[in-house]
Design brief:
Layout lengths: L9 E5 L34 H7 L7 E5 L8 H15 L4 E4 L8 H9 L4 E5 L22 H7 L8 E4 L6 H10 L5 E3 L10 H15 L4 E5 L11 H15 L4 E3 L12 H12 L4 H15 L4
Parallel strand pairs: 1-2, 2-3, 3-4, 4-5, 5-6, 6-7, 7-8
Helix pairs in contact: 5-6, 6-7, 7-8
Length: 303
Amino acid sequence: MDTENGEPFVDAHQHFWDLGANPYPWLQGETVPNFRYGDYSALKRNYLPADLARDTRGFTPLRTVHIEAEWARDDPVAETRWLSQLAQSCGRPSAIVAHAALDRDDVVEVLEAQAAFPLVRGIRHKPVTSASAAQAQRGLAGSMDDPKWRRGYAMLQPNGLSFDLQAPWWNLDQAVDLAYDFPQTTLILNHTGLPAYRSEASLADWRRALETLAARPNTALKISGLGRRGKPWTQADNVPVIRDAIAIFGASRCMFASNFPVDSLVADYGTILAGFRAAIADRPASERRALLHDNAVRLYRLD
């Protein structure tokens, strides 16, 4: 239990990896170009439940949701099998968002295999996106507009799966169409829509993009990933962004998430949690509980 102030919380977005036993190309030799936090070599080490317990000592999440960690793409079900075994032996994670390439020919078989694991709640497959707002365009192969990608997306609901979306705010017009066309599939936007640029004009565009997506009732938001390259994670920088995001989506559709250990590149766990708590401190107790705990329990079916 969270012993910091007695308010229980769920971490709705975290990762584990064992680099000695399992394949993660981006951590084992390959380099991600233009990684959003810059140098990520500090992540190239094992990160397991004992490491998360160390990083959360004094404010332990009641439950955690593991988001696929880019295990080698030739066998995404193997990651789910390993995580399920980890949960049995260590008690973490509490639920899994697995991977399936929605535009691959074997998507039906992979989704059925993933959905058969009791801890699996949803799927994340990062669509092709544009590098910047100035370059944003529709209809790219592998994007949310791609007919083949959308055919895979259509198979989520029959398998009882939600979708975790990682995409920058300037591509959320595609997500709006996706949410409209598949109203029975819950779409959960990761990392606050990636508001990396904090000029007044960029934040205004980010808010408008979130407002358009939030108008779809089958969408939700994870508040995480707010670090910026070369800058410390501060409340002055991020509390206004958190408050704007919650104002747009509402207290019943936002969740706290750490993105650990990735966000350990920009802050320790306590700093990120304290910043979220500061952003919601003036809200009623019922809303604080929803934002910290109840929304994640409902959206990821953690009961």
